Amino acid sequence: MNVTNDMSIFTLVSGASLPVQLVMAILLLTSLMSWWYIFIKVFTLKTATENIDQFETQFWAGGDINDLYERVTAAKTPPQGMSSIFQAGLKEFIRYKQQPSTEVSDVMEATRRAMRATYNREMDELDAHLPFLASVGSVSPYIGLFGTVWGIMNAFRGLSNVAQATLSQVAPGIAEALVATAIGLFAAIPAVIAYNRFAASVDRLSVRYESFIEEFTNILQRRA
């Protein structure tokens, strides 16, 4: 029937007013970008977790940390995550220890600062794109609601010149307006779920980084 064709999603989108179509386009673009960032974060956090597990296995195997430092430094790829923190800390520790008449407290303070600076850089990389996902999750429903309100306003404005309004006259306008809300929810829900999951993963990695900094500081302090 024609009514079914007229109420299809494509017809509703193509028949919507220009502001509603712009809202739908913005939401679809935002949804595509959020999905792209979601896939990036999945691989980034997976790689970071694997790097931590691999490095901790090597670090706590009981070998010489100088040999581990040489292997990390001589690796073809730059160190990342915990290995990067380890390299920065031990490098600063060795540099200050070679200076004559240097207090142990100064050596440890410089070592801790070097590891903290590297830790902050690693956390910045892990937190990348998370603010965008949070913004999509919180703003998209309101953008879709704006398109819905605008579409319903147009639907009722079109009925102002009609002597008798019927459901068949009101339904298409309201339906095309509600499509904007549906697209807004489609963009927001995955972004909110992904943000919560990624934020929890980043927090767990942050705790492991900080724990390693404290443990490695104690090891170096005993050597100092």
User: Number of DSSP strands?
Assistant: 0
Give the CA-based shape: rod-shaped
Largest β sheet strand count, sense and barrel closure: none
Structural class: mainly alpha
* Residues in helices, as a percent range: over 70%
Distance between the termini: 85 Å
> Mean pLDDT, rounded to whole units?
85
> What share of residues are in beta strands?
under 5%
Low-confidence stretches: 1-5
- Count of helix runs: 8
The radius of gyration is 28 Å
User: What is the ordering of alpha helices and beta strands?
Assistant: HHHHHHHH
Structural commentary:
The chain is mostly helical and 224 residues long. 84% of the residues lie in helices and 0% in strands. It has helices spanning 2-6, 9-14, 18-59, 65-74, 82-97, 104-127, 130-158, 167-223. Helix 5 (82-97) packs antiparallel against helix 6, helix 6 (104-127) runs antiparallel to helix 8 and helix 7 runs antiparallel to helix 8 (167-223). The radius of gyration is 28 Å and the shape is rod-shaped. The termini are far apart.
Which short descriptors sum up this protein?
224 residues, mainly alpha, 8 helices, rod-shaped, disordered N terminus
Concise summary:
The chain has 224 residues and is mainly alpha-helical. It contains 8 helices and no strands. It is rod-shaped, with a radius of gyration of 28 Å.
